[in-house]
Design a protein that fits this description.
By secondary structure, the chain is mainly alpha-helical. The chain is 72% helix and 2% strand. The strands form two sheets. Strands 1-4 form a two-stranded antiparallel ribbon. The longest helix has 30 residues.
């Protein structure tokens, strides 16, 4: 092995670190649950791990995840898609329009179709006409908002729709999608027999760890929408399609090097069109989720920026479905804290984040000390310096949060409502050093041209 190859491998190891496997992720999840249980006991904030909070987290995280999944498909093919918000808006209107007439599943299908049309429009602009990806995405956001407001006033504010409760800013009510409750454990019904709610009884005792685990499991197995279950299954399905099939390999090759893909016979234009249309379909599904599960009707401004938060979750997840799901759950959880627990629950999270920052600081400092004897290049010196700076900043923020926790009992309501957005900024700032976007993401590709 050459010296250059050895140096490159060492630099990569220093800057990126060891890749975590599934057992590591499970251990991290278990440690976080133990820490949440301790925080709950210390601050007497039972909503931190309650089944209601877990259920609300799922309902709030799924539309973020679906929008982010749309962004993942587009950007893996090399097309930046910041039009996710506009495609979601198209999905909410289309889903409500079909849902109140023909049922919620018809609304889901129409929402997917509405979002896919937005994705197709983005593909035509960026792939065929070479429009700047950012400009096209912004245009679709504006178009989606303006078009749905016009159509809502035109269709929902007249005739039978108005008689059913529609108006210029909302649709008639849509029947919600049915839910599932697991029998025996969560009090579900099977063959007409109502089983005991064993998990609920354990949760109500507020025991250390046992009640927290019961609350999490009950939130996952009680009152789950069928569409939520579909969204959860999309995580392994997307990973399988993109990383284990020839079709997924072609999609990803277009995002890494479309000219090399073209030289190997990959129809780059077709792959990009398919990926961006699928991206719009997932965003439309996120909009349909809002009108068939979260709130059973279309309302003006219903998406609330979830398309942009989904984009942030995708970046946090390093353009991979597992990381995207984790980021979506994080944003959904902080939003659920705002809805369920308010200032008391968010106050408990101050201590939780303090402990996490201390752990990050220790890890960064130990990592910097271990890397220091191996430093030989500027890249390695920069990695060591970043590790020490990151550790020092984590200590400063941890001290500030601990002082805030000890000097207060409740977080003010104004800050509680800002918590999800603050989480978005902090997560992106802390994760930025380990991100790797597709190499050809945003590049304007032209068939037959040189690089």
């Amino acid at each position: 092995m050459s010296t250059v190859t050895t140096a490159a491998g060492k630099a990569k190891a220093l800057t990126t670190g060891r890749r975590l496997r599934w057992p590591h992720h499970l251990l991290i999840a278990a440690a976080l649950l133990v820490l949440l249980s301790l925080v709950r006991l210390i601050d007497d904030a039972n909503d931190v791990t309650s089944s209601g909070t877990v259920g609300a987290t799922l309902r709030l995280a799924v539309p973020i995840f679906l929008a982010g999944l749309g962004g993942l498909w587009a950007e893996r093919s090399g097309v930046i898609n910041i039009g996710l918000e506009g495609m979601m808006i198209l999905g909410t209107w289309s889903g409500a329009w079909a849902g109140y007439q023909w049922g919620p599943w018809a609304g889901v299908a129409a929402g997917i179709a509405g979002g896919a049309l937005g994705g197709l429009l983005h593909a035509v602009a960026t792939v065929s006409f070479g429009v700047d990806h950012i400009v096209s995405g912004v245009a679709i956001n504006i178009l989606g908002l303006g078009l749905t407001q016009f159509l809502a006033g035109l269709i929902f504010d007249t005739g039978a729709a108005k008689a059913l409760g529609g108006g210029p800013r909302q649709s008639p009510p849509v029947d919600p999608i049915s839910t599932l409750t697991l029998p025996v454990l969560s009090g579900g019904e099977i063959f007409g027999w109502r089983s005991p709610d064993w998990l609920g009884s354990v949760e109500r005792h507020h025991w250390f760890l046992a009640s927290d685990l019961a609350g999490v499991l009950r939130g996952l197995t009680s009152g789950m929408s069928l569409l939520t279950l579909v969204a959860l299954l999309l995580v392994p399905l997307t990973f399988f399609v993109l990383w284990r099939t020839a079709f997924g390999l072609r999609i990803r090759s277009c995002g890494e090097d479309p000219y090399a893909a073209e030289s190997l016979g990959v129809p780059v234009y077709r792959m990009k069109y398919l990926a961006v249309t699928i991206s719009g379909a997932f965003s439309g599904l996120a909009g349909a989720f809002l009108v068939t599960v979260a709130a059973p009707l279309y309302q003006d401004g219903q998406t609330g920026g979830r398309g942009f938060i989904g984009l942030a979750a995708m970046i946090f997840g390093n353009w991979r479905p597992g990381g995207l799901a984790a980021g979506s759950l994080l944003f959904g959880y902080t939003d659920a804290m705002n809805v369920r627990g308010g200032g008391q629950a968010v106050h408990a999270l101050l201590l939780f984040v303090t402990v996490l920052l201390v752990a990050v600081a220790i890890w960064q400092l130990v990592r910097g000390n271990r890397m220091r004897p191996l430093v030989t290049t500027d890249v390695e010196r920069r990695a060591v310096r970043n590790a020490f700076v990151g550790g020092a900043l984590s200590v400063v923020f941890a001290a500030a949060l601990l002082a805030w926790f000890l000097s207060s009992d409740v977080v003010p309501g104004e800050l509680v409502s800002f918590t999800p957005h603050l989480t978005t900024l902090l997560v992106l700032a802390l994760a930025s050093q380990r991100l790797r976007m597709p190499a050809a993401n945003g590049i304007q590709y032209r068939r037959g041209e040189s690089r």
